[in-house]
Amino acid sequence: MPAHERITGPTFAEMLDPSRIDPNIRERALSAGKTDPLDPINLFNITWKNQDNQIYHEILPPALTGVDTPIAVLYGADFPTGSHKVGATYSVLVEKFLTGQVDPARDTVVWPSTGNYGIGGAWVGCRMNFDSVVILPEEMSQERFDIVTGYGARLSLTPGCESNVKEIYDKCHELRAADPEKVRIMNQFEEFANYRFHYYVTGNTIIELAGILEKKGIGRGKVSAFISAVGSGGTIAAGDRLKQAWPGDHKIIGLEPVQCPTLYWNGYGGHDIQGIGDKHVTWIHNVNNMDAVMCIDDMESKMGLQLLTEAPGWKVMSEKYGMDENHIKRLSEIFGISGVCNVLGAIKTARFYDMGPDDLIVTICTDAMDRYHSVMDQLTQSHGPMDETEAEVRLVSIFHKQKLDWISEGTRHSRRQWHNLKYFTWVEQQGKSIDELNAQMDPAFWEAEQARVEEIDKLILASRE
User: Fold this and answer.
1) 228: helix, coil or strand?
2) Which residue has the higher pLDDT, 4 or 17?
3) Which of 31, 49, 408, 457 has the fewest CB atoms within 10 Å around its CB?
4) Range list of H helices, 186-322
5) How many Å apart are CA 207 and CA 74, to the nearest integer?
């Protein structure tokens, strides 16, 4: 492509419904997705829907979950980069580009991340012709590092693991101070374009899915609860849209690692559910809408992933528990560690709130096994190979008997506490004002951010002219 060519992709409306995309562009994008995944035309494959406009989702078998409440998972494995985080990175960059805040002819864009957002930033940034740098903690999986560099971005590693976000922020300050005229930080934890992608695209996709499933006899056309590990506070924003669709009849449940329970009780610590639990409350997380925080053990999440992705687990699930072999194979292709964490949170939610077969719970599989082989190898080295006996123990103890501990329901007091925790990162460290912080207590603040979807879509359409 010509140097510094200006490149954009789909509107929010087109990401929600790719049938709105020009058919010639859509056909080219679908073809490139199979033959040339680095072609910028793949930006038009950022959507929760496949070539037949069907939503990427699976209904989990009760033999796996141990509950009779249907649990639907939307999965990101078929997005460009293999994770839905690419939608957030595109939304952040295209918004800043179209409003004149970044220019590929001038700027280096920096993607602070603990995993999939950085991978998405590497892919989107380089496809939109930006010099891109991804900041990642040095203890993340080797697969993540390889994918980032393979997409054409540069890596900047920081000390620590998933929950060492302060060190990531310090690196952002260092890079910006070294070249303030050129370096632009694409901070997922504070950029509301991340929130908007999930509020509008993910949220409305889930609403559509509820109607589709009702016609198949699953649920009653609504979602009783949306479960999301907190992470950047982006994915959980889909719940804000769902609460508007079903006011007073929908719960948003946020998940954290037991090893780093920041919202649960101001806790801290390292953990290995890559993509969540970053030891602070993000700027874009609407904590006032959250009905509960639940904590999930990182070791259970990793052991659960091994159960779903290795032969002894498959044999136990099919031969002893009657699960369809083809379905087991499909599930093994869409789960990563945080996806297992989300499902364990969904099981916890169904049991804690006494949900039944007429309810519907929706959660997310952010990425897939392709970036966790090294983690599974380490697990085998530390705990030994998983045989069939161990696989059945994991199925029963981790899934069927998921404990109802580490649950904190949202009250007026706890929601204010969650909100107040933002002060220490965003006012003391990141330069936000008290007035900006207090503004987030007003629902109108969030409604104004949601309304900007239409504005950004108009800018994208105008750029095509």
Assistant:
1) strand
2) 17
3) 31
4) 192-196, 203-215, 238-245, 262-265, 298-309, 311-315
5) 12
User: If you ran DSSP here, which 8-state letter would residue 198 be given?
Assistant: I
- Where do runs of H (alpha helix) occur along 5-115? 12-16, 23-35, 62-65, 85-98
Helix (H) or strand (E) segment spanning residue 346: helix 337-352
Mean pLDDT within 67-85: 97
DSSP 158-195: ESS-TT-HHHHHHHHHHHHHH-TTTEEE--TTT-HHHH
Beta carbons of 160 and 169 less than 8 angstroms apart:
no
Q: What are the residues whose beta carbons fall under 8 Å from the beta carbon of 200, sequence distance 6 or more?
A: 12, 16, 241, 450, 453
> DSSP for 236-255?
GGHHHHHHHHSTTS-EEEEE
Question: For position 123, what pLDDT does the model report?
Answer: 97
Distance from chain centroid for Cα 236: 8
Phi, psi of 131 (to 5 degrees): -65, 125
Reported as a single tens digit per residue, the pLDDT across 391-419 is 999 999 999 999 999 999 999 999 999 99
pLDDT at 455: 97
Q: In what order do the strands lie in the sheet with 407-409?
A: 57-59, 71-75, 361-365, 225-229, 251-257, 292-296, 407-409
Please state, in angstroms and rounded to a whole number, the distance separating the CA atoms of residues 401 and 344.
10
Question: What is the DSSP code string of 120-151?
Answer: HHHHHHHHTT-EEEEEEETTS-HHHHHHHHHT
DSSP state letter for 322 = -
- Cα four-point dihedral sign 16, 193, 298, 410: negative
Answer with the residue of higher pLDDT: 432 or 142: 432
Q: Please answer whether residues 113 and 121 qualify as being in contact, where contact means their C-beta atoms are separated by less than 8 angstroms.
A: yes
At residue 292, does pLDDT exceed 90? yes
Alpha-carbon distances, residue 349 vs 137, 273, 342, 396 (angstroms): 31, 19, 10, 17
Residues 6+ positions from 146 with CB-CB distance below 8 Å: none
List domains and CATH numbers for the chain. Answer: 57-81+192-409 (3.40.50.1100)
Given a cut of 50, whether residue 1 has pLDDT beyond it is no
Residues in the chain: 465
Q: With residue 58 as reference, give the H or E element that holds it.
A: strand 57-59
Taking Cα atoms as reference points, which of 242, 171, 166, 251 lies closest to residue 211?
A: 242
E strand segments, 321-421: 361-365, 407-409
Measured torsion, CA atoms of residues 262, 265, 271, 274, in degrees rounded to the nearest 10: -40
For position 278, what pLDDT does the model report? 65
pLDDT digits (tens, 9 = 90+) for 32-41: 999 999 999 9
Beta bridge pairs of residue 256: 295
Report the pLDDT value the prediction gives residue 4, as an integer from 0 to 100. 60
